Amino acid sequence: MAGVSPAAASNLAQQTPSPFSFSVASTRWSSRPSIHLSNVFLRFLALVFSFVSALSLAAVSPNKETQFTDYPEFIYCFIVSILSFIYSVFQLFKGICDIAHRGILMSDMISDYTSFILDQLVGYVLISSSSMAIPVIRHAQLTGSLWRAAITSTTISFVTSLIFATCTLLSGYKLCKRIIW
Amino acid sequence: MAGVSPAAASNLAQQTPSPFSFSVASTRWSSRPSIHLSNVFLRFLALVFSFVSALSLAAVSPNKETQFTDYPEFIYCFIVSILSFIYSVFQLFKGICDIAHRGILMSDMISDYTSFILDQLVGYVLISSSSMAIPVIRHAQLTGSLWRAAITSTTISFVTSLIFATCTLLSGYKLCKRIIW
């Protein structure tokens, strides 16, 4: 922008009044690596957090009287964390394949559509499951270890849903580029 | 776009293998009315549903022993419905202004960004509030009228969150067009 004349600069500002316009002004291929890398990083974070969320519920000592399986809300939370973990493993694997060999798993078009829809879906379901666990933590008489596990799992599920919300932004951006270009 | 040569047009068609490419191939202004109209329709639906969701909780007879205000989860649900109602009123008003006078409230750029962020946020918060009410409905000993009101409110909140998810897609699409064009 340093060498642009004032008239051209104001014209440019009218046409693309966006802080993200640099990634569009550059070519498609040069903007790919940074998006791919941040995508892989976010997928890795989501994978770790989903795993910890599921593990913290599953690791409650089985000798105690109350298990997390006594509460349907915690089972829901557990299943959602497991599904989110599996989905993150798949996305991480695909992301690494994309960086290494540029897409051997499925076509870019199908992958962009399914990623966007599934990211959105997993984000909503994670928010829903962590919200649903909160009243049970508040009202039910939980034992100490189950209470701690539920708090940990719910908090981490909430953070994971934020990560998926960010992934949705990235995959939505990739999808929009595909639709428009 | 009208003066594009056939070779360039076929090249463009190869690059955009998408069912939505018609709205991009046409000019920006001609694709506007349908998006604007569906936007206004969705905002109107969201407005009605948020209002009914809040009303069904507020209309529980105040003579009964238990009120919805005894349960923080229902208060959360009520507040979220009211906020979603106010936001829908604003968006509906803006949508009608856009159709009538093409934007007198705020600049298109600010409106696209805030709409996308707030739609996303309201969708997540609505999912969260309706999920949080479900365990209370299951576990707490609610009176008949409050139980019915809570079921109604939760169901309608859930439907409203689906409407907001669709609004997010529309406003995300508008935002992407702004970023890329």
From TrEMBL, chains A, B:
<keyword id="KW-0472">Membrane</keyword>
<feature type="transmembrane region" description="Helical">
    <location>
        <begin position="40"/>
        <end position="61"/>
    </location>
</feature>
<feature type="transmembrane region" description="Helical">
    <location>
        <begin position="113"/>
        <end position="137"/>
    </location>
</feature>
<keyword id="KW-0812">Transmembrane</keyword>
<feature type="domain" description="Casparian strip membrane protein">
    <location>
        <begin position="34"/>
        <end position="141"/>
    </location>
</feature>
<keyword id="KW-1133">Transmembrane helix</keyword>
<dbReference type="GO" id="GO:0005886">
    <property type="term" value="C:plasma membrane"/>
</dbReference>
<feature type="transmembrane region" description="Helical">
    <location>
        <begin position="149"/>
        <end position="173"/>
    </location>
</feature>
<feature type="transmembrane region" description="Helical">
    <location>
        <begin position="73"/>
        <end position="93"/>
    </location>
</feature>
<dbReference type="InterPro" id="IPR006702">
    <property type="entry name" value="CASP_dom"/>
</dbReference>
<comment type="subunit">
    <text>Homodimer and heterodimers.</text>
</comment>
<keyword id="KW-1003">Cell membrane</keyword>
<protein>
    <recommendedName>
        <fullName>CASP-like protein</fullName>
    </recommendedName>
</protein>
<dbReference type="Pfam" id="PF04535">
    <property type="entry name" value="CASP_dom"/>
</dbReference>
<comment type="similarity">
    <text>Belongs to the Casparian strip membrane proteins (CASP) family.</text>
</comment>
